[in-house]
Amino acid sequence: MSELAVEVNGLGKCYSIEKAGIKGGKWRRLAHKLRFGEDESSKFWALQDVNFSVEPGQRVGVIGKNGAGKSTLLKIMSRVSYPTAGEVRIRGSLASLLEVGTGFNDNLTGHENIYLNASLYGMSRSLIAQRFDQIVAFSEIGRFIDTPIKHYSSGMRMRLAFSVAAHLEPDILLLDEVLAVGDMSFQQKCLERVDELTSAGKTLFFVSHSMDSVIRYCTRCLWIDGGKLRMDGDTREVTEAYVEEVLKVRSERTVVSIGAIDGPSTADSQHEVKAESTGSPVARETIENRDGAELVSARIINAAGNKATLVSVAEQVGVELVYDVKGPGFYAPAIHVYCPSGTLAFAATHPSTNIADFEKGQPTRVKAVVWMPAHLFNIGTYSVSLVVFSPKEAPFKRYFSEERYLSFHVVESAIGEKSARGLMPRQFPGPVRPLLDWSVNDVER
């Protein structure tokens, strides 16, 4: 087994919250502490008892809500801040890119700042000169390299900062929300550079609020919650758990009948709906005393038929609903899909025009699955309403209609994968993103 690149043992970082009545400098605060003792309510633990280890070559994402302690962790690892408890062991050289413009002088040109920034990381002037052209070419700001960076956009500054850090070839690279800059081609270059570094045994730590960026760049993920390590594991598993809790995405629900389990249902039977992701009861308006059909369970599924909370733009996504038919009649399933903004994106029902396809002659249990194609949705959280109705009657009779009953979160497709976004920047407009067939040819004038 190779030597660990990073070891974090019992790590804690505590800040003192100064109260309004104890102002006046450190000596007055010390006198107050000696007289009245330590006030535990004045302590804030940004990190508490954090433990993990990382082997060389791993790509580790760090996620969590604002104030969870993610940036504090990276600052301690980069020696910008020091722990109150525990220790961090770093083996090898380390470069960190925690904020836009860190280590840059606004009044200097991009050319001069490359030398300044690289020298702060300990790179010799001769080595900087040797790699200068590579850094400039990677950053794609060659036209402006002799312009003071105070005239640069935040994206240009971040490109330059990442280019310098990535060409230092450190053993450990710490990045805080910096890989989301630029268009797809630049992000592809970033990913390729990260691949080169990690393939050579270098280690990456990447803090981000963008789940699709974490999924694309990282193979392992740490979830920091309230200063504590909530979860550590496979990136997909950790990000799905995070999305389920933080974004309140419910991709699976089961209806539980209370009081009717051991006997026939009655008009007074009570029902609850349990969201499998949270386990909490969810109120429903239309659940009582169904006369024709009753929902049993529903979930969002992937192509393998497994429950899916996160899906890629390039993946098909299915809705599976199971319902009980209580007697003879005609029963057709339908869904309504809502955009992240809350507006209706589209509605769909079974395409058959043969009324006999929906006829049931006796009580039975039905499972209906509808597939939505890949490259239909843009990134964001979508919700789904479930309906079973009778196509025999006009207007249609609804047996049940569960509004925004399920939800799923769509993340960006893999870098380099064919997509309707092409080379457009990250903020692609609209709720849908169909991959269309294009033909572009030169014609005679």
Automatic annotation (TrEMBL):
GO CC list: membrane
Residue span, ABC transporter domain: 28-251
Cross-referenced PANTHER family: TEICHOIC ACIDS EXPORT ATP-BINDING PROTEIN TAGH
GO MF annotation: an example: ATP binding
This protein's UniProt keywords: ATP-binding, Nucleotide-binding, Transport
Family to which this protein belongs: Belongs to the ABC transporter superfamily.
Signal peptide extent: none
Gene source species: Rhizobium leguminosarum
Pfam families recorded: ABC_tran
Protein name as annotated: ABC transporter domain-containing protein
